Amino acid sequence: MSVRRRAAVLAATAVIGTAFAPTALADESPAASPSPSQALPSGLYGSTDPTYDGVWRQSLALLAQHTVGVRPAAKAVDWLTGQQCADGGFAAYRADPAAKCGAKTQVDTNSTAAALQALEALDADDAVTGAAVKWLKSAQNEDGGWGYLPGGATDTNSTSVVIGALEAAGTDTEDLRSKDDRTPYDALRGLSVPCDEDGGGAFAFQPDKKGRLAANADATAAGVLGALGEGMVTDAEDDGGSAGPATCAGGDSPTAEQAAANGAGYLADAVAGTGHLKSALAGAEDQPDHGNTADAVVALAAAGRTADAAKPLAWLEKESGDWAARSGPAAYAQLIFAAHAAGADPRDFGGADLVKQLGATGPAAAASTTDKSDKDEKKDEDGDGGVSVWWIVGVGLVGGIGIGFLLSGRTRKQQP
């Protein structure tokens, strides 16, 4: 669920005293280089300045590798767990993880949620994941949702990524109630643009100063997943391959399920023409937004609109190579999530091996889980008196039955 941020947004929000969590900080521009005096940790993915996105990109990289059956390097996992503060929260990046987190350490919901999803998938120590769950629960707003920073105004992207993380950790988010007896889904429903308004069915990032909701494609991709209780990695809920317009349902008070379906319908319409979403950055409105398009593919597939995901997926296969190379590990992870959700092969994505490209941005991974299972199987065969049970099964397959195995694997700016 790609909850994507850009350096320009971070710079702007720093002026007004707020911040947003990054994924690919330079989505359409050259990536920032680390300071010559800054030595990056050997366990960290990516070669650019990690100040605003270190934990985020590390989490996505580890989660994507796990999704395609690759066991990440132990030092990469250790680096991520070492970023956790004693209270369970994660900041975007701590240059000195040995130093205790203090009042100036800006822990945030997005970094914590992303780390939790990755560490849950990797079966990290319960003390680590349990502390993250506790911290996220403590940061829930009275309206049921979450802002980027504890106590900050609720937004669709933060609420959705937290829902996915808590669900991954076994928390029943439908019964997770705030002090005002509101659930996360109440918060998302309140951020769904009413059907009879411009952009009806989409999600807004946040209400504007007058309380109005403006459709935002990035928030919509996140909101669909959040309303469905899904995380960044999701399997397609196939609708039978049918595509077409969806009627916005629920008026100004949709159920969570209706809000998800409405959002998916909005995304389907948005990508139907060109196959991609456009950037919301000032001066770049006519430029394609690769990361948001990848997030839209995941959301469409999760909502059962696999046929509608086909066109943007094909566009990404053809057009995303340069963007991913510029943007780094989080971008490769987003593409892997999109391929996985839509049933494509991330090892042959428009001719590119996303798994290999992601792996090249960080420490060498351990043996893949599939390699290990192959070795275990071979060991079982060798201990079977020279006659493999799989050989016997293979005889029965000569009649024409085939078995195949496929390993397959978000700008916070108001967008019209």
TrEMBL record:
Membrane is among the record's keywords: yes
InterPro entries: Prenyltrans (IPR001330), Terpenoid_cyclase/PrenylTrfase (IPR008930)
Signal sequence residues: 1-26
GO molecular function: catalytic activity
Pfam families in the record: Prenyltrans
Biased composition (Low complexity): 361-370
Residue ranges of every copy of the Prenyltransferase alpha-alpha toroid domain listed in the record: 58-167
SUPFAM superfamilies from the UniProt entry: Terpenoid cyclases/Protein prenyltransferases
Transmembrane segments: 388-407
Chain segments carrying region Disordered: 233-255, 361-383
UniProt keyword terms in alphabetical order: Membrane, Repeat, Signal, Transmembrane, Transmembrane helix
Biased composition (Basic and acidic residues): 371-381
Name assigned to this protein: Terpene cyclase/mutase family protein
Lineage: Bacteria, Bacillati, Actinomycetota, Actinomycetes, Kitasatosporales
